[in-house]
Amino acid sequence: MTYQLELEDASVRFDSLPVVRQVSLQLSQGDIGCLLGPSGCGKTTLLRAIAGFEPLHNGRIALQGKTVSSERVMVAPERRRVGMVFQDFALFPHLSIADNIGFGLRDRSAGERRQRIRDLLKLVGLTGQEKQHPHQLSGGQQQRVALARAMAPRPEILLLDEPFSALDPELRTQLAAEVRTLLKEDGITAILVTHDQSEAFAMADHTGVMNQGQLHQWDSSYNLYHHPATTFVADFIGRGTLFPIQVADRNSIDTPFGLLSGKLPPPLEPGDKLQLLIRPDDLHLTTKPEGIQARIIEQLFQGADFLYTLQLEDGNRFQCLAPSHQRHQTGDRVTLKLDIQDLVLFGGDGLALESRS
Ligand code: ATP
Question: What is the pLDDT of residues 83-129, one digit of tens each?
């Protein structure tokens, strides 16, 4: 199978400092990928390497099966057919919306150019505004023009570097979902860089979580949340608490919540020390008398839910989500029931046990 984009052990160094370390990932035609991670983890550098602005120290980048970067190969950015959208939109202020969109189509016939501009204006919902100039549009509209301009020449891959970060938070997630629909309608393969996980969840088919130049996991949003490959991903995506636990026997672990049974990976032996991930949605408040006893330490109203911080008798703290119509007060003693599908366990090296077999 030929991927639209394939990275094999791609590494970038600045001077001798490794900034991107042995990153491997694949995107099929029409798929949307996302690179997520804390500031300075190497996301933009990786995107720039795909665009052809940074050479590789090791490994390979291929577009449609053709190597464009390796230790020996470096295809120039303008020959890669890559489109880019940046945080600051970078529209040409003196050009109309139509001319901004048509900027990369100067080598096409006038008819073809007009038709593509018309189609893109319709796609991004700006038909009728083609004669206006960028300053006459809102931030969200300007970003749609920047997107249409980058999509116009039908790039092999579209690279989006924090394209929504200049917009206010509510607009961001909404626009991310809209942009996903637009890219899917036009069948464009894209990679988005962000440090906002709600943007990644709204947009991506596959998301890569990076830290210190390494790609910890390249997966669906669902798997990043429910099956994180490392403790870093478990901590970075969503909320959750890692508890130190001990293997009791082949089918159960000893935890601050009592003995929990589940399928354990075969190499584990009684007495092995591990960490267990508990997400706020793994626990429910119950009115039944039997269950886990805890005290509410803090509460955060989130509209539909409350996010409670709770403390066990032994001092261990964790979080739990509960519908906001079930009102409790800080200091209340409550009873909880654990409802976990799979035991998400990590070894001392921070790697998930289920991802090793
Ligand atoms: P942010 O979310 O803050 O934009 P990022 O994940 O995109 O961060 P990069 O911009 O790729 O991170 O930077 C990764 C590391 O490489 C950082 O430590 C940065 O200081 C360093 N770096 C980036 N560009 C250069 C350069 N041209 N020369 C030297 N070091 C650089």
Answer: 988 777 788 999 999 999 999 898 899 999 999 999 889 888 889 99
The Cα–Cα gap between 221 and 198 comes to 10
For residue 212, what are its two tokens? Answer: 């210190």
* Cβ–ligand 1 contact at 41 (below 6 Å): yes
Which atom from ligand 1 is nearest to the alpha carbon of 14? 29
Q: Which of 207-211, 232-236, 257-261, 274-278 has the lowest mean pLDDT?
A: 257-261
Q: How far apart are CA 67 and CA 89, in angstroms?
A: 29
Q: Name the nearest CA neighbour of 51 among 3, 101, 12.
A: 12
Q: What tokens were used for 32?
A: 């949307």
**Residue among 215, 160, 150 nearest 192 (CA):** 160
Q: Cβ(47) to ligand 1 under 6 A?
A: no
Tokens matching residue 57: 């120290």
Nearest to 23 by CA among 77, 78, 60: 60
- Kindly report the protein residue whose alpha carbon is nearest to atom 3 of ligand 1: 39
Distance 230 CA to ligand 1 centre (A): 23
Quick check: helix, strand or coil at residue 147? helix
Q: Which of 44, 54, 165, 191 best tests ligand 1's pocket when mutated (most atoms within 8 Å of CB)?
A: 44
Query: Hey, whose CA ends up nearest to atom 30 of ligand 1?
Result: 14
Write down the pTM of the prediction: 0.89
Tokens 């943007």 belong to residue: 199
Which among 7, 345, 63, 4 is positioned nearest to 208, based on CA atoms?
A: 7
Question: Which residue, by CA, sits nearest to atom 28 of ligand 1?
Answer: 14
Residue located nearest, by CA, to atom 10 of ligand 1? 44
CA 328 to chain centroid, in Å, comes to: 33
